[in-house]
Specification:
disordered N terminus, rod-shaped, NAM-associated_C, No apical meristem-associated C-terminal domain-containing protein, 9 helices
């Protein structure tokens, strides 16, 4: 059967199936010879039951003065008034379902506490709850299907108090004397309430722990605490050593990075210097080329000027017309004057 549902009418042997407890007054009423089977609890009904238990348990007015029967009558009344469209439940159905929820959620709380103590790195709270559910399924051989109940109960002081008492009862070995149906757990929840004479599972029937057993339990707890402190100290030392090693590796890595950066800067500087030298050489070559072109143009211009001067000087003025003779004669005189000036210039 799926753990999220609990057959409400499965009774221990010897209990008749034709009589159901009243959810309002606790009195029995006959519903016939045939057995009536109610539907399984849904997640919504589980939530209503958990909230009803918390509201009645945390009642500041009468919580410490109510007996077992009156307590569960109030829980049943609160549940049936808040269940909405879902069917109303009997007291037996609700107590059976609560015992199942309490047992399953208590087990899962242990797995979750162990997961929180181990504190795996990189895991969120949701991841831890998934991992705890996986551990639960692996050990208990069935899935944990009451996560919705655990989310309601996990942070409530009343539930944590009940869980602490259940753990103490389990650790002290009192479960050997407890009734097999688990109803003794409800008495733990009642806190300072008066014992009920009609409840066979009342805590008044339990034998208290003796002095020697109490001393032995105290020594055992002290030894476990000392061992735990020693383990914590060893883990702290290991973490410090690991931190030191990590710091050394980090410093070495930073030094290596600084060295690499220096090499990169030096290489970049050399590269820029090389580029500047190349640019200077390019500029020098370009200047030389321009100078050579200018010199060449100057030589070509002088050559043309010389050829033109020679042509003009070679003209026979006697064969020219009067106007042409006057023109070329003036040009020849300018050419001769320029030549004389060039020859006289360096000597002066």
């Amino acid at each position: 059967m799926d753990d999220s549902f609990f057959d409400l009418n499965d009774e221990p042997e010897g209990v008749g199936g034709g009589v159901l407890e009243s959810s309002m007054g606790g009195s029995a009423s006959k519903v016939g010879a045939t057995r009536t089977k109610q539907t399984n609890f849904s997640a919504y009904e589980d939530n209503v039951l958990c909230k009803s238990w918390l509201e009645i348990s945390c009642d500041p007015v009468i919580n410490t003065g109510q007996r077992r029967e009156s307590f569960w009558i109030r829980v049943v009344n609160r549940y049936n008034s808040n269940c909405g469209r879902y069917p109303k439940r009997t007291q037996k159905s609700i107590t059976n379902r609560w015992d199942h929820i309490k047992a399953e959620v208590s087990k899962f709380s242990g797995y979750m506490a162990e997961m929180i103590r181990s504190n795996p790195s990189g895991m969120s709270d949701a991841d831890k709850s998934v991992a705890a559910a996986a551990d639960f399924a692996s050990v208990e051989k069935h899935n944990f299907t009451l996560m919705h109940c655990w989310k309601i109960l996990k942070d409530e002081p009343k539930w944590m108090e009940l869980k602490r008492k259940m753990d103490m009862l389990q650790n002290s070995g009192s479960r050997k004397d407890a009734p097999p149906n688990g109803h003794h757990i409800l008495d733990l929840d009642a806190g300072n309430s008066a014992p009920s004479t009609s409840a066979p599972s009342s805590s008044s029937g339990k034998r208290p722990m003796g002095r020697d057993a109490a001393k032995a339990a105290k020594k055992k707890a002290a030894a476990a605490s000392s061992e735990y402190v020693s383990k914590i100290h060893d883990l702290s030392v290991q973490k410090i050593e690991l931190f030191k090693e990590t710091e050394g590796e980090r410093k070495a890595r930073l030094d290596e990075i600084v060295t690499l950066e220096k090499v990169k800067v030096e290489e970049a500087r050399e590269h820029r210097k090389m580029k500047l030298d190349i640019e200077r050489e390019k500029l020098a070559l370009e200047k030389r080329r321009l100078d050579m072109e200018a010199e060449k143009k100057k030589e070509e211009a002088e050559k043309k000027e010389k050829e033109e001067d020679e042509r003009i000087l070679a003209i026979n003025l006697d064969q020219c017309q009067p106007l042409q003779r006057m023109y070329y004669q003036a040009l020849q005189e300018d050419i001769i004057q320029r030549l004389l000036s060039r020859r006289q210039g360096p000597s002066q």
